[in-house]
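Hi everyone, sorry if this is the wrong subforum. Our group has a chain we'd like a structural model of before ordering constructs, and none of us has done structure prediction before. Sequence below.
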Amino acid sequence: MLHQNIGPKDVIDILRRRWLLICMFIICGGVAGYLTSRILPKRFTSKTLVLVQQPSVSSQVVTTVVSDNSNQRLAAMQQEILSRSRLEPVIQQLHLYANDIATVPMENLVDRLRKAVTVTPIQPMAETRAQNLPGFTISVVFGDAQSAQQICAKITSMFMSENLQIRTGEAKETTRFLDQQVADAKAKLDEQDAKLADFQRRYLGSLPDENQTNLSLLTGLNSQLEASTQALSRAQQDKSFAESILAQQLAVWHASQNGQNPDSLEKQLAALQAQLVDLRSKYTDDYPDVIKAKNDIALLQQRIARNQSQKNKTVSNKALQIADEPAQIVQLRAQIHQYDQVIQERTRQQAEIQKQIGVYQARVQATPAVEQQYKLLTRDHDVVQASYNDLLKKRDQSAMSQDLEESQNGERFQVLDPANLPDTPSFPNPLLFTGGGLALGLALGVGLILLLEMQDTSMRFERDVEAALQLPVLAMIPVISQNSQAGKAQLNLSKSISGKAELKA
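Answer:
Right subforum, don't worry. Here is the predicted structure as tokens:
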């Protein structure tokens, strides 16, 4: 075997020679496996199936604030539940490892129970392309079937309560955090509102949205000022005209009262002044006619002045004179008094309009600077307002999500198959151990046969001789046994061949 290749015929020949040894190893291996399965301590497996139930309210109606990554949450819960602080009370409540609890440290017992619990997530079907965890299985392997069921039920209830506690806690914490953020945002918004209100009070009338109104009012005030100015001018002209008529009427009336005609004195004065101008154009001031004309003018002016002084003296007795004045003069005085009132009213109105124009002009001129400050203030206010509205909306959503979780209408764990009470042990499996023993016996038998064949130096076939001696085979002498039928037949055949050979000779 060391110097040649082994073919199927060689394998069959080896199996024919060594079949008894292989059968012996197979039978011994199977028996040993079965006996091992009967000797090893039994382990019972209790399983439960938990499904992840989706929220009963659509996410479009109530948006959950809890993390929807079920895989991470399940891993976190597994680490929490399988910790010593959670498993040690289970050992004490269910009286597990009663024989070892006095001698074995609690840490080792907890580690033993942790290894007995297996949490296996269920992978979603590829056709659905779902990302969330559809469910998971919890299996507990223990030496007692009833204890395995109790542990599995206890671990399952811990997972369900932990999931509810985690989701409710996350919702409450999110709502509390958003409440604080909303309160801070409201304080900032109130501060911005106070600043904006104070700015509007200080610059009332100069705000950007009032600029067009100010321009319209300024245009109207300019029109009113122009109309008032025109009315004032007309009143002043009317008053001047009435005063000139009143002076003429008073002069005529006083002249008639004193026997003199003021109009004639004025005319005489005008004629003398015209005569003096004509004389000066022809003669010098030393000319007698020029001197006489000057004297006449001076006398006439003195006369007119006396008449005027007399007129002024009579002013103190105006009330008495007015009572005696003609109706035409009294009417003229009333018109002049009315014109005075109109002029005063128009003057006051004109001053008020000009004051208002100044105010609106100042507002219009200050509008660009005010608008710049107002934009900065309103921009900050809008940012704070948007942030407050967004936080308020999120807080309301978080509050609804918290109510949803507390009412157990959100995502929750639902036990589909409760923890079963195993009837037969899951370990050791007699069939599996027996099959393993048979396979091990077969492997040992084949290995032993291979070792024996490698140490065997017998030459059974022509190729064995050629492989061992490296020489060709010229003839082979078969082994003939007289006791066997094949030997007798071969011997008879040889005798007949030798007899024929002699006859021929």
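For your construct planning: Residues 52-182+400-411 form one domain. The chain has three domains: 8-39+431-492, 52-182+400-411, 209-385.
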